[in-house]
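During the reporting period, our protein records have gained a structure token line. One record among many is quoted in full directly below:
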Amino acid sequence: MDAALPPLSGVFRAVAALTFGAAWAFYLWLGVSNPYVGFVADDAVYLLMADLYSPLHHAVGAVYAHIRGYSHLPPFFPLIISLAGGGTEHLAPARVVVATAMAFANGLFGWWLLRRTASPWHALGLALVVGLLPGTLLLVVDVFSEGLYLALCWLILLTADRIAIRPRWPLLLALGVVAGCAVGTRTIGIALLPALAMLAPRLGWRRSSLVVIGFVCLALPLTRLSAGDAAPSYFQIAMDQYRVAPFAVLGQQLNDASTALHGALPYGLFQWRDVHAPWRNLSLMLLLGLGIGGMFDLIRRRQLLSCYVVAYLGIVLLWPFANFMERFVMPLAGPLLYFAYHAAVKIHARAGTAFIAFLACLLLPAWMHTVQALATPPDDPKLSGFRTTRYWIDLTRRASAEQQIKNLGALHDYLPRLAEVVPADACLFTQYPQITMYRAKRTAWLIPPPADLLKPAPWACPYVHALADTGDGEPPFYPLDVVGRRAVIVDSLSVRPGDQNPRRRVIGMLVRDRLAQDRGCPVTATCK
């Protein structure tokens, strides 16, 4: 419906302003109320990178050298956090950046929808639904870059709309700059480039060159900030997997990615982990059918968003990291619901209101659970901060939430003690390397498989932090069963100090690997 912007009443403007203002305040409260960072990996690394970029923080030491060498995360998001004054010692500014970026993304999405929906109220309703999706809230409670990436994507599409009307040179440069910011925020932002290439025939080579100049002028400085030179890139990892047996690997990858996509989509939209109930299957099939139909109709019309989504899905299906599918899916939530809305309105001109009401009905159970969880903190007052974490508000975790947050809370409070035991230039193996680097400022690596643990130094780390719950199907306190007599217990982590049963009291042990030291890897050396 790419029509001109409809006239907006004063009532609508006031309601829209209040809605997006309330959403921003809700996001900010969720984030600021959550003191826990690092359990989901990327958030801790973003904050450590923000320390590196901040002019206010003197980031020195082995852990920051490790981040410079091995972090593959794009630099633009941590750069924004650092400019806002955020970092490992200043969490609140990072929370403000996350909340503001997500609220801004929702506002830009609603603005983009105004030209493409049958009613301004439909645009507001769709934007509000996307802003309150369970997957959106889980991205807001942690320090993730998706909100900033989405804001940049919708800003690109809005700028492209404006250029189609009046292709002035400042807008063309701005389009390239914002595209560079998007790619510098999420690597998968390269899916935007085919969509922007569709503008070239309409703009001509001179105007298109301004877009390219803007992109290069932003991308080159960001490239200088990029880390990860000491490790293979994501692209190298992907190519290494495909190089061995490309067709067999491709078939397996497509199967794994499609299976992960089938589970991640209902989880991100409605917090359905397993779709077994007949009404859920029917609802999901209806939504996906409408979404695919709407997408193909818009592909036929050569709309930029549809081209971007096709390129994005292509990358996701070929990218050999299916474990991260839940985060890959969320940037597609808004486009998918818009495609489905578009198809519903094509079927019947008055179906838009019914479609939004249908979405609200599907989301009502998840919304009710979230409100109940936020209003009911954990029984232990010391763990009240977990009330606004994914571990408490996620409906699919409720069965094990109490015990999980007890263990995570104990680990979070214990990790600074590692700085007193592990030398500053030493490294350690752990199941939680990111939060260990964030809380203890010690270089940490994920515990390798048994065969790698037996490799000679200097590859091995002299310290191992073993936990009762490994989380990956390994035996409790792995790899102590492999290290065996080589291990010297240095410290232990207890979740119930008063419990006399050590099996229930001790949930973690820090040990020193004597063999790693004897093989020429001193305790005070940085071992990789």
User: Anything to note?
Assistant: Residues 74 and 512 are 34 Å apart (CA to CA). The longest strand covers residues 487-494. The two ends are 56 Å apart (CA to CA).
